[in-house]
Amino acid sequence: MRLTIVIPVYDEADQVVETIRSVSSVVREEPAFSDSEIVVADDGSTADVASPALAAADGVPVRVERLSRNSGRFAARRAGLQAARGEFVLFVDAGVTIVPGSLAFVAPRLAEGREVWNAHTEIDAGGSPFALFWKVVSSLAFGDYVDDPRETSFGVDDFDRFPKGTTCFLAPRALLLDAFEAFRSRYADTRNSNDDGPIIRSVAARSRVNIAPGFACVYAPRRAFRSFVKHALHRGVVFVDGHGRRESRFFPVVVAFFPISAGLGVAAVKRPIVVPLAALGVAGFAAAAASRRPRPAAETAAFATLAPLYAVAHGLGMWRGAALALANRLGVKS
Fold this sequence. Notes:
By secondary structure, this protein is of the alpha/beta class. The protein has 12 helices and 11 strands. A 6-stranded mixed beta sheet has the order 3-2-1-4-9-6. The radius of gyration is 20 Å and the shape is globular.
């Protein structure tokens, strides 16, 4: 079996170096594949990414595929996928590290026919309340797996109950090429699209997606105020694209959000006291939700404190997503 590791990157030289070193170390120490290579998909970076990426190569060949302009992670991953020479492709985001033993764990299972794997993701919060927030989000959204990590699999029927993403995702190249070809976004500019959910859903329709603690990675979320808000806004935009579809269990949430948020906005204009009351309500609801499962007090506090901020940024992102979708439908450039 031959493996290509595709790393999409945009002005993340330090992070891509970290990821290349992590991947190279695992590949060298776990020769589970007959041949391996790393393809860095440079999404039109303004800084020099190629030089440090090539310099970080350590026993595993590294190639850099550069897009002529910044086109988003979907386009970068597609370019890396098209350039891949391996029959299997492992997508890994810049800054993500592979847990030692992961390739040795997954290789024999690939040979048995279990060919699609989403990595079990450990969140490195580093004590940051912004990163702790995401740990709680993951446990609440995907409690069935997060509360009981185990070797299992999911398909389209239970797709939304399991954590997944192209942060660290392994599948046959041919299957991924078909999924990328079938990809459709509600937005004209795929930089705003949900660039992993629909892809993995398409793959899951043809082959069950496996997940297990034995195939794992470590992810460090945003740890600063500005990047947290920016990320929350973007998550709102992609949420509409990824879950504004009837096949998603979150489709009713998307439909209900707009009249409810519009009504809340009108009420806030008429009676400003609604704003702090709503913030307190969101914080209280978040604290109650987080407390349903045993967790460190710092996680509950971070989740409750940041929930109102996240709700506002995510909500604004959803309204922006709706505007982008409408503009695309009407053929208006946005």
